[in-house]
């Protein structure tokens, strides 16, 4: 690290802010991090400390791992893994929660909405430290709820379990992820909401990806599509469309180009009927479908890779799409570029992904694989590539 970056948290933050492209003023940085300008000034001058949560937000804005900002703190990925046992303990008590306080329903709604927002922003460190207590509180509320509130609390539980699953799956805790998916299915049944059922079916596909059981995953998704509500509202259209997007990708992983294209065509048709937005926790619309076109082409590989480059040419996901989806686009694009012999462009795409969602990018297995390949292909390349490979633990 350059000498200017040493000398405490504040100086490190100021250094990375000053070398961003484009450079951020203190006010722009404060606005992006949603903190007061005076707070940023005091932290950079060393007059005020910084919490882990604030450090994670600053790191996300700067596109670096939190460990880059403070050498005496453990890396974000270490803190996430250290918090996993508490998360496991919380879900083990889903049906027999321990005694404790329970906030009113409106406050629980707000808390769940916040963790859902953080999931879409790929802020996994903040999620995993908040969720154990929240899951226990939601379980207490659910088991003690009146009949009129029980369905909503079940839906809130399913949403919170989804946020927990995002962390578990991204960080390779696949057994925990599978358990959380089953708890999502349990909660969704009690919520009695067909749109939530479709959302859970979308997430359940992770277990099939993890097991490389692509044909089985495709069957499960096609069953979910058949069971989805009639697409006569925007939410119902989006629910069905997200399932088609997911089915297109898993059919691609199964190397079934015809079925993949059929689902992608149906996703495009449905996307043309609704605005791009987050529906039941999943982004859907024309931009999301375009991102999935790239994903499908990469999944099919071989002669289809060129389609990924064509779909991405001259286009980048708009900034109002969730960070996790935007970073995923650049990770997929990097793989297509690498396979096409465009090593320099591939590294640029990986850097963009890191800037958008550092934790999501760092934990993505394709990022580690592709960074290692780039390092082998370009043994005498710049320090930036070496630093990136070390950052994502590429071997």
What does this entry look like structurally?
The protein has 20 helices and two strands. Helix 6 packs parallel to helix 8 (147-170), helix 10 (194-210) packs parallel to helix 12 (234-253) and helix 14 packs antiparallel against helix 15 (305-312). The chain is mostly helical and 395 residues long. The protein has helices spanning 9-19, 26-33, 37-44, 52-62, 76-92, 105-120, 124-143, 147-170, 174-191, 194-210, 214-227, 234-253, 257-271, 286-300, 305-312, 323-339, 343-356, 358-363, 365-377, 383-391; strands at 277-279, 282-284. Residues 1-7 have low confidence and may be disordered. A two-stranded antiparallel ribbon has the order 1-2. The two termini are 21 Å apart. The chain has four domains: 1-73, 434 Repressor (Amino-terminal Domain); 75-192, no CATH class; 195-314, no CATH class; 316-395, no CATH class. The longest helix is centred in the middle third of the chain and has 24 residues, at 147-170.
């Amino acid at each position: 690290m350059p000498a200017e970056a040493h000398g405490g948290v504040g100086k490190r933050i100021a250094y990375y802010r000053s070398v961003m492209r484009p450079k951020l003023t203190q006010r722009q940085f404060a606005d992006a991090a949603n903190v007061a300008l005076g707070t940023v000034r005091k932290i950079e001058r060393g007059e005020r400390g910084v919490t882990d949560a604030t450090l994670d937000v600053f790191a996300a804005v700067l596109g670096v791992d939190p460990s880059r900002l403070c050498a005496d703190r453990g890396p974000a990925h270490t803190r996430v893994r250290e918090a996993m046992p508490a998360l496991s303990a919380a879900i083990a008590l889903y049906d027999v929660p321990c005694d404790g306080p329970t906030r009113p329903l409106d406050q629980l709604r707000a808390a769940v909405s916040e963790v859902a927002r953080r999931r879409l922003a790929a802020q996994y460190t903040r999620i995993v430290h908040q969720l154990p207590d929240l899951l226990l509180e939601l379980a207490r509320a659910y088991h003690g709820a009146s009949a009129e509130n029980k369905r909503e609390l079940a839906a809130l539980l399913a949403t919170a379990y989804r946020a927990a699953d995002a962390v578990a799956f991204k960080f390779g805790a696949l057994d925990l992820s599978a358990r959380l998916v089953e708890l999502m299915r349990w909660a969704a049944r009690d919520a009695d909401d067909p749109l939530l059922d479709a959302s859970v079916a979308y997430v359940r596909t992770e277990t099939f990806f993890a097991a490389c059981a692509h044909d089985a995953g495709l069957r499960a998704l096609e069953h979910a599509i058949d069971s989805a509500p009639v697409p006569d509202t925007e939410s119902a259209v989006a629910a069905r469309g997200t399932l088609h997007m997911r089915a297109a990708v898993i059919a691609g992983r199964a190397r079934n180009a015809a079925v993949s294209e059929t689902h992608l065509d149906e996703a495009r048709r449905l996307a043309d009927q609704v605005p791009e937005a987050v529906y039941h926790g999943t982004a859907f619309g024309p931009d999301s479908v375009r991102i999935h076109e790239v994903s499908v082409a990469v999944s099919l590989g071989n002669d289809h890779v060129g389609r990924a480059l064509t779909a991405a040419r001259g286009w980048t996901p708009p900034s109002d799409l969730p960070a996790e989806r935007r970073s995923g686009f650049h990770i997929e694009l990097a793989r297509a570029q690498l396979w096409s012999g465009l090593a320099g462009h591939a590294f640029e795409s990986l850097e963009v992904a890191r800037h958008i969602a550092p934790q999501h990018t760092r934990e993505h297995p394709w990022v580690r694989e592709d960074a290692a390949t780039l390092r082998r292909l370009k043994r005498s390349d710049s320090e930036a590539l070496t630093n990136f490979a070390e950052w994502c633990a590429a071997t």
